Amino acid sequence: MNIPTTSACYEIRLRGHLSQTFLGAFPGLRAEIQGAETLLSGTLPDRAALHGALAQIEALGLELIELHRCDGTPVSGRVHGRRRQA
Fold it and tell me: Helix, strand, or coil here: 71?
């Protein structure tokens, strides 16, 4: 069975403020500090890229708080806070 590999928008919320070094591990994702958390957001080309980002989070010992697949544009351009869980 072939699974489509279309790009999708994701929001990944992590505990703490990530340093520039850690942020460099997530090219193509925007970072926004929100309180005591960091929100990474952006479009990933396929599920393999999403799994790669999640593996990088684990490898760096970061705490994943939540993961959302956006309906369209990430947080900064989101309308009425609409999002759905991945």
Answer: coil
